[in-house]
Specification:
The structure is a homodimer. Chain A is mostly helical. Helices cover about 65% and strands about 10% of the residues of chain A. In chain A, helix 3 crosses helix 7 and helix 5 packs across helix 6.
Chain lengths: ~170, ~170
């Protein structure tokens, strides 16, 4: 009897995906923050795979991107903006500096602090990485129309920065 | 001269927040996946603060929530659904089991696997935690109207589960 019941369940679940799909109906799967985390995880996994060819990961890419923004972020600002520990930022900047992509300079606004600026090689690396990340992002967002992608980005932007704009 | 230039910059930046706000104009701050990560980080920080009173964190809450879903998730499914390593799930389930909130049972669909089910105390804990998380979520989403919150959730749902629904 138990064997038969098991077989029936298996027949209704042709693959592992079919099994896990039932979790989409959970309360958790309707919580916006869970969905934001999962969206990020799906995107990061894809972007990390693609960025591996440039020996970057999403986090080092984020630091490089802000270093190349022309906005002269300090290490403290990078930590705050990226929600990472200062020690994590130091390690990421160290690794980018070691490969000649960024340099630390004294911050004219606060001499106890360093700002992170790109080298010419760092700018080139960022241009390549940004193209890779953009392609990965488009893949991850392929379920949405261009208008819906804009809508999603605008809504997320308002939530993501609500604490500082409110 | 340099001192004067510095003072001018400082005057235009009345607080640390004002300083970091300029990073909102970076390319990174317009990437949907960065925004999803930041939305999650803002929400998690707030939820972790609130959940501390119940000795839970966002991750243990997520496991408890799925255990209480009535959907009988296996440890493997929890790992896949939450994008965590199986070893992380084992540690989270261990800690919830130790405090009497969940139990491991043999999975009728696969005897090599365990499903995670809640105890009565676990269901009560989840009810309290879900209320806390919902309040924290509403705080995090307070920049949006109710319609916009629904819109955001629906768009994220389509992206977060695109890989399995596409």
């Amino acid at each position: 009897m138990t064997e038969t019941a098991d077989s029936t369940v298996r027949a209704a679940l042709p693959s592992e995906e079919a099994g896990i799909e039932r979790l989409y109906s959970s309360e958790l799967a309707n919580e916006t923050e869970f969905l934001a985390a999962r969206t990020r995880s799906v995107g990061s996994r894809r972007a990390n795979e693609e960025l591996a060819s440039l020996d970057l990961k999403v986090r080092s890419y984020s630091v490089l991107s802000l270093a190349c923004s022309g906005l002269n972020p300090s290490q403290r600002e990078l930590a705050e903006f990226l929600f990472l520990d200062p020690s994590q930022i130091v390690a990421l900047v160290d690794s980018l500096e070691k490969r000649g992509a960024v340099k630390r300079k004294a911050d004219p606004r606060d001499r106890r602090s360093n700002i992170i600026t790109p080298t010419a090689a760092g700018k080139k690396l960022y241009a390549e990485a940004a193209a890779v990340v953009q392609a990965a992002g488009e893949g991850a967002l392929s379920a949405l129309t261009p208008e819906e992608r804009d809508q999603l980005r605008d809504l997320l932007r308002r939530v993501a920065f609500a604490d500082q704009q409110g």
